[in-house]
Amino acid sequence: MTSRTATDEASFYSNAEDYWKEISPTVDGMLGGYGSISNIDINGSKTFLQRFLGDGEGKTGSGCALDCGAGIGRITKRLLLPLFKTVDLVDVTQEFLDKAKTYLGEEGKRVGNYFCYGLQDFVPESGRYDVIWIQWVVGHLTDDHLVDFLRRCQKALRPNGLIVIKDNVSYEGVIPDEVDSSVCRDLNIVCSLVRRAGLRIVHQEQQKNFPKELYQVHTLAIR
Ligand SMILES: C[S@@+](CC[C@H](N)C(=O)[O-])C[C@H]1O[C@@H](n2cnc3c(N)ncnc32)[C@H](O)[C@@H]1O
After folding, report:
1. 119 appears as a binding residue in the annotation
2. Which residues line the pocket of ligand 1, CB cutoff 6 A?
3. What's the CA-to-centroid distance between 152 and ligand 1, angstroms?
4. What tens digit of pLDDT does each residue of 160-182 get?
5. Nearest alpha carbon, ligand 1 atom 27
6. Which of 28, 37, 81, 91 to mutate to test the pocket of ligand 1 (most atoms within 8 A of CB)?
7. Ligand 1 atom nearest residue 31's Cα
8. Is 120 annotated as a binding residue?
9. Ligand 1 atom nearest residue 27's Cα
10. For 85-114, how does the pLDDT look when each residue is reduced to its tens digit (9 = 90+)?
11. Helix (H), strand (E), coil (C) string for the chain
């Protein structure tokens, strides 16, 4: 890597950190002013996840989940804590994790760990998680860091564990967002990065009923 590339990469991450430090620790802040879509999002995720959970051969357990790029814990509160005994959160913005401690209320007692890390640096504990949920954050990682993070996630799964990526996808190619210092990739690119990590897509869906002006959102179950 040339020093110029290293500098670009460093500013890609530091600009994103600076952006999120200025965002209010609310559901609206997490969703770029679209707090009103949170219910539709969570209900879609619940239906998606439930097909993998339950008793029986090959089913994913309900012991421990990891919420990646968790923010204030919007997904932890409404999706993960109701389905899993323990949930860990990881996010690069300390202020959001601090807010999560009150936002999650009583049920927040079942949070195991609040990890303040960039996903590019985070090493999840080996064999700890039934589900690793990664939503609206993969665009903040470079291709190589995303691939490496997914590899580490695979090692962190329990038997029959599942990684879920839910994110915006572009119509074609990689669209940079200079405001929050992220990229939006098309579905083929995301799928090829997943495969590069040595993982397999076991199910894939488009989230329905989001406002037309937003990017399409796809949910991928991988292991
Ligand atoms: C669009 S918000 C989504 C929050 C949450 N996933 C949700 O759907 O409610 C993006 C989150 O990613 C976090 N983030 C940005 N870059 C990150 C990185 N490199 N590693 C970990 N978290 C990051 C931000 O602090 C913010 O909480």
Report:
1. yes
2. 16, 20, 30, 69-71, 74-75, 91-93, 96, 118-120, 135-137, 140
3. 18
4. 999 999 999 999 999 999 999 99
5. 71
6. 91
7. 1
8. yes
9. 9
10. 999 999 999 999 999 999 999 999 999 999
11. CCHHHHHHHHHHHHHHHHHHHCCCCCHHHHCCCCHHHHHHHHHHHHHHHHCCECCCCCCECCCEEEEECCCCCHHHHHHHCCCCCEEEEEECCHHHHHHHHHHCCHHHHHEEEEEECCCCCCCCCCCCEEEEEEECCHHHCCHHHHHHHHHHHHHCEEEEEEEEEEEEEECCCCEEECCCCEEECEHHHHHHHHHHCCCCEEEEEECCCCCCCCCEEEEEEEC
pLDDT tens for 187-220 read 999 999 999 999 999 999 999 999 999 999 999 9
- Which tokens hold the place of 91? 């996010």
> Is 69 annotated among the ligand-binding residues?
yes
3-222 maps to which CATH number? Answer: 3.40.50.150
Q: Which residues are registered as beta bridge partners of 135?
A: 166
